[in-house]
Design brief:
The structure holds two protein chains of two kinds. Chain A has one helix and five strands, in the order E-E-H-E-E-E. Chain A is mostly beta strands. Chain A has a single domain, classed as Beta-grasp domain (Ubiquitin-like (UB roll)). In chain A, strands 2-1-5-3-4 form a five-stranded mixed sheet, with no helix packed on it. In chain A, strand 3 and strand 4 form a beta hairpin. Chain A starts with 6 loop residues before the first strand and ends with a strand. By secondary structure, chain B is of the alpha/beta class. In chain B, about 35% of the residues lie in helices and about 15% in strands. Chain B contains eight helices and ten strands. Chain B has a five-stranded parallel sheet. The radius of gyration of chain B is 20 Å and the shape is globular. The chains are: A mainly beta, B alpha/beta. Chains A and B meet through strand 5 of A and strand 4 and helix 2 of B.
Chain lengths: ~70, ~270
């Protein structure tokens, strides 16, 4: 059996989302139009440094958090 | 030849936290402003050098405004990340590490809240988180209550500053326990920065008169009718309170002592 589009299910910022299979973290950020320099990525509870984004491949079931600084006291 | 007179410069030490000197003893939060433009103008008016920021999910729907770094330049103002919204030590530690990963600094304003209604700190959890974050190399500024014992323990745990509240966050109730704040300042070696509860200029002035090293406030400025004007007021108030403290106030008395001579009155 083959599929014409390969996508995987991940949890991104608390919501289920389908993304293309085979993306690295860099690719994921591009896919959702987020500039990597403005965010911090937590991948399956592990904080990933910017220089490693292109090394990590997003897999089905991954739980990813993208955070940044906002106003606060 | 000059035709203007200038006041003598009243010397004061800078506020030094973990070896870093700050000229301003007023620290502002970046939350609750009606607009980023007002916020930036308030910060200019207050002449602050350090502001706090929170760590939150990026809004992937883009219905909210972009992150704070679009409006503040970390090269011009020191950004102190907080762990606001955390109710456990583990959460606070997680948020602190996320903040550090942004690459600006390794400082954190540690907050671990124990009660949603009052936003009072869970001091046991704060101590636990402080110890772990200090061991992990963070510069920890710990939000706490006005309990002396907790303040001493936070200092022993290696916190770079202890931040006792004046009154609950966002309450504007001012300094409810000046005695406890004075005692904390007497006993600690690290800077004591009162954080939370200041409502207006007189609160800030009174707080600085206790001898503390600085004040952190957010709501007092952000929720004023005119935040920029309130920022100016706060700048003056913090300075006034500080100078009054350094000047050494007169004693309080329960009897009157005349200010004009008693001798030389007419028959």
């Amino acid at each position: 059996m083959s599929t014409t589009t390969s996508s995987i299910e991940i949890t991104l910022n608390g919501r289920q989302r389908s993304v293309p299979e085979g993306l690295t973290l860099t690719g994921l950020l591009e896919h959702i139009d987020i500039h990597p320099r403005m965010v911090v990525v937590e991948w399956n509870r592990e904080i990933i440094r910017h220089e490693h984004y292109s090394e990590i491949v997003v897999r089905d079931g991954d739980v990813i958090e993208l955070v940044h600084f906002v106003g606060g006291g | 030849m000059t035709t203007t007179t200038t006041l003598p410069t009243l010397r004061d030490e800078p506020l030094t936290i973990a070896g870093r000197a700050f000229r301003s003893r007023l620290i502002l939060g970046t939350g609750k402003y009606r607009s980023n433009d007002v916020m930036v103008r308030a910060f200019d008016a207050a002449d602050v050098e350090m502001v706090t920021v929170a760590v939150r999910r990026v809004d992937l729907d883009r219905t909210r405004e972009e992150g704070i770094l679009y409006h503040l330049d970390p090269a011009k103002v020191f950004l102190l990340p907080n762990t606001a919204g955390c109710y456990t030590a583990a959460d606070a530690i997680r948020y602190a590490r996320l903040a550090r990963a942004a690459g600006l600094n390794n400082w954190v304003k540690l907050e671990v809240i124990g009660d949603e209604r009052t936003l009072l700190p869970d001091v046991a959890a704060t101590l636990e988180a402080a110890r772990e974050l200090v061991a992990d190399g963070f510069v920890v500024l710990a939000y706490t209550n006005d309990d002396l014992i907790t303040a001493l323990r936070l200092e022993d745990a290696g916190c770079a500053a202890v931040m006792p509240l004046a009154s609950p966050i966002g309450s504007g109730l001012g300094l409810v326990n000046p005695y406890y704040i004075r005692e904390i300042k007497r006993r600690l070696s690290v800077p004591v920065i009162v954080d939370a509860g200041v409502g207006t200029a007189s609160d800030a002035c009174l707080t600085m008169e206790q001898g503390v090293d600085g004040i952190l406030m957010n709501t007092a400025v952000a929720e004023a009718q005119d935040p920029v004007r309130m920022a100016v007021a706060m700048r003056h108030a913090v300075e006034a309170g500080r100078q009054a403290y350094l000047a050494g106030r007169m004693p309080r008395r329960e009897v009157a002592v005349p200010s004009s001579p008693t001798a030389g009155m007419l028959d």
